[in-house]
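Input.
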Amino acid sequence: MTTTSHDWSRADAMTEDEVRAAALKDPDAQPLTETRLARMRPVPRTKTMRRALGLTQEAFAARYHIPLGTLRDWEQGRAEPDQTARAYLTVIARDPESVSRALESGPHA
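Output.
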């Protein structure tokens, strides 16, 4: 593995205005406009939670008895969890192992 060093002396000598002007010249690093910011979607909480648990979509859906298609729709922004599903996801987020154990033991009705 090769490490490339960079001479930062030129950048260090620039004023804040010069740094900003140089950054604005980069077409790939433009600041977000209000319009672009409004179009951005946050990472769905289900995806963040699933990844934190180290589970695939299939494993998360199976473990927590969520239809795989529903989970995919949530993660891809095609649908939002309803109020009941949000409550269930909150419980999973707070204590995933307890929820998993409760579901493994089967119905208690």
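DSSP finds eight helices and no strands in the chain.
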